Automatic annotation (TrEMBL):
This is Cell envelope-related transcriptional attenuator domain-containing protein. Residues 565-623 are annotated as: Disordered. The keyword Transmembrane applies. The chain crosses the membrane at residues 12-30, 42-65, 72-93. Signal peptide: none annotated. Keywords: Membrane, Transmembrane, Transmembrane helix.
């Protein structure tokens, strides 16, 4: 009886596990379908695979497995699959929320903040203290915002006296000299005061005692294409100088056009120097100094729409979409992708980036391939003082960082890093590409897995020092060579008309630049001066100045080899040869004494003659 009860309970548990698996699987498939990132064919395959897997596991859990151990193993498998589907559902939902936030920013309102400053040592500490006090403003600058502020104070029953000044220098002087009790400016114009050499201590002496926020419509200046997977389109990649979230009115420090042809799989990146001296264009509601010459980066003060419209007029093109990112985005995205590899050309190695000050790090790059984390990638993309070409080399570095991010983000390995990538994107980007268009692009990438060709080109010019309308003073600028503008337009048209990546690369490689042509910026911009301008209010850009040290050749230190005599085993020293005894000198040989000459013997007397008898003869026998 107990055995039967236990079996029934275990069967009930297995049934519940199978039901849970089916519910979670259906939820997972439904969320992917709602996200619309898979084509119809892939969606049908996913549905079929999910149904087969769910049915097969359920059969194994409920019917096929007879032994208790096998049933438990199949149940564990079902729970694991349910957990996997639940985990997938969570990130699919998170992706949907991220895309919604990414694309919803442009459809809302743009916040504009007007701030009232008073000296820290004054009695003005809140808006109530402004009653019957003088407030200084710059005439014809942010007139819409100042009007909103004054009306707000009036509605609160606070009466103030408005004093107008010609530019930010005299305005700050009036506050310092206590001619006015407070000054009112848009928050983005604070740097117009702090960047004046005379008022670099402004933040130490003044404080915000009241602020008022009003909103303008965040309408896009871009004109979307009909089919983003079939038609060429142009995106303005706009990098904000913000390091903590994206503001609506941040300076535009990175301005890059991405011209995309989805049929030829070619992406052309055209960079424009942040200090390009351009004529400003904007819609009236953005309250810019239209028709005045200024740095391109300053156009972002009046929203990215002003930057987009100014670039359209400069280049003679239509921008279809805007994509914005801040500094923090580079760090987060690169780290989420596991780092990127950049190739440093010979002669462009940097031992230490000046931009390390952002993080207190000591990054640099060597010749050849360098693997960079997020902070190193941002230092590399922001560095200009370490290079002879300055901002022009920085642009090339930015293009390479963006290219490597795009390549890694469209590679299969991104799947394993997807959760971290989603977290990195949230809050660091916005775009006016619709969520449906983003889904279409994802479908296009998954269906075709195209190999994109990235090509880079940069506008160039000559450095100068000119009067900038937003700065109300002189600042360093780049007078663009109009020949580079015209050639960029030619490249853009080539991409849009369907030229291959090789054809466009050949155009760049064989291009022979004519003599520089600086256009009307050389004449009209040069004549643009403030009648009240004085050297007293010289514009100061708070940047770290590089210290150039003449390179010194340091010969490599080579230690001289030390001679070590070979080790010879010790042998007993031979006994010294005995010293030979000295040979005695020979005694002198005696001098021979000649013997006396003997006297000659006497001559014998002759013998007597023999007789005449014959001699006897001896006869020998014959042989």
């Amino acid at each position: 009886m107990n055995s039967d009860g236990t079996s029934k309970k275990f069967l009930l548990i297995r049934i519940l596990i199978c039901i849970l698996l089916c519910i979670v699987t259906v939820l997972f498939v439904g969320q992917i379908n709602a996200l619309n990132i898979l084509s119809q064919n892939y969606m049908l395959i996913l549905i079929a695979a999910a149904a087969i897997l769910c049915g097969l596991v359920s059969v194994l859990v409920l019917f096929a497995a007879k032994k208790t151990g096998t049933q438990i193993a199949c149940s564990v498998l079902a729970v694991a699959l349910a957990a996997g589907c639940g985990f997938g559902s969570f990130y699919v939902a998170k992706t949907g929320n991220m895309l919604g936030a990414l694309t919803a920013a442009h459809s809302g309102k743009i916040a504009n903040v007007v701030q009232v400053y008073a000296l820290k040592d004054s009695a003005i500490k809140s808006d109530k203290d402004l009653e019957d006090k003088k407030i200084g403003v710059v005439k014809n600058v942010n007139a819409v915002g100042i009007t909103h502020l004054l009306n707000d104070l009036k509605d609160k029953g606070i009466t103030v006296k408005e004093e107008q000044y010609d530019n930010f220098g005299p305005l700050a002087d009036a506050l310092y000299d206590k001619e006015v009790s407070a000054i009112a400016i848009n928050q983005v114009h604070e740097s117009n005061i702090t960047h004046l050499a005379k008022f670099t201590d402004f933040k130490d002496k003044a404080e915000v005692i009241y602020s008022f926020t009003y909103y303008t419509n965040a309408t896009s200046a871009a004109d979307a294409v009909t089919d983003i997977t079939e038609e060429p389109f142009t995106v303005l990649i706009n990098g904000s100088d913000s390091r903590g979230g994206l503001g609506d009115t941040d300076r535009s420090d990175v301005n890059m056009l991405a011209v995309v042809n989805p049929k030829t799989h070619v992406v052309l990146l055209v960079s424009i120097p942040r200090d390009a001296y351009v004529k400003t264009y904007c819609d009236p509601e953005y309250d810019c100094l239209e028709g005045q010459y200024d740095k391109l980066t300053h156009t972002g003060i009046h929203t990215y729409n002003t930057t987009a419209k100014t670039i359209e007029e400069l280049m003679g093109i239509d921008i279809n979409y805007v994509f914005r990112a801040n500094f923090s985005a580079v760090v987060s995205i690169v780290d989420a992708l596991g780092g990127i590899d950049v190739n440093v050309a010979p002669g462009y190695a940097v031992d230490y980036f000046y931009t390390n000050d952002m993080f207190g790090t000591e990054y640099g790059v060597e010749e050849g391939v360098n693997h960079l984390n997020g902070e190193a990638a941002l230092c590399y993309a922001r560095e200009r003082y370490a290079y002879t070409e300055g901002d022009f080399q920085r642009i090339k570095n930015q293009q390479e960082v963006l290219t490597q991010i795009a390549r890694k983000a469209t590679s299969p390995e991104v799947i394993a890093r997807y959760p971290a990538l989603i977290d990195a994107i949230e809050g660091n980007f916005w775009t006016d590409v619709s969520q449906d268009e983003i889904s279409e692009l994802i479908q296009f990438q998954l269906d075709q897995m195209p190999q994109w060709t990235f090509i880079s080109y940069s506008l160039s010019g000559t450095p100068d020092n000119r009067y900038c309308a937003e700065a109300y003073g002189n600042a360093s600028v780049v007078i663009l060579d109009q020949n580079t503008v015209k050639f960029a337009d030619k490249l853009i048209k080539a991409v849009q008309s369907g030229d291959s990546g090789k054809e466009i690369t050949d155009m760049i490689d064989t291009y022979e630049a004519p003599a520089p042509d600086y256009g009307e910026a050389e004449t009209e911009g040069n004549n643009q001066v403030d009648p009240e301008y004085s050297a007293e209010y010289e514009y100061y850009e708070p940047v770290q100045e590089p210290v150039y040290n003449e390179p010194v050749y340091n010969a490599p230190v080579v230690e001289a080899p030390i001679y070590t005599p070979p080790v010879v085993p010790e042998t007993p020293a031979p006994e010294p040869d005995p010293v030979p005894e000295p040979t005695p000198e020979p005694e002198p040989a005696p001098v021979p004494v000649p013997e006396p000459t003997p006297e000659p013997e006497p001559v014998p007397e002759p013998a007597p003659e023999p007789s005449q008898e014959p001699a006897a003869v001896t006869q020998q026998p014959a042989a």
